[in-house]
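Consider the tokenized backbone below.
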């Protein structure tokens, strides 16, 4: 990823964070693949990105 691509990504993320009411960061270490997939599915069902 070159500098221009990084700048575009940062601008996009900045916009997403500014429009969000909250941000959740999750650490998947210790989860099985099936557990991680189930968690991501539940998160998507709530309308999260």
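A designed sequence for it:
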């Amino acid at each position: 990823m070159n500098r221009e691509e990084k700048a575009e990504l940062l601008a996009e993320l900045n916009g997403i964070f500014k429009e969000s009411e909250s941000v959740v960061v999750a650490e998947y270490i210790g989860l099985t693949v099936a557990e991680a997939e189930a968690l991501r599915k539940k998160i998507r069902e709530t309308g999260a990105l």
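The chain has a mean pLDDT of 90.
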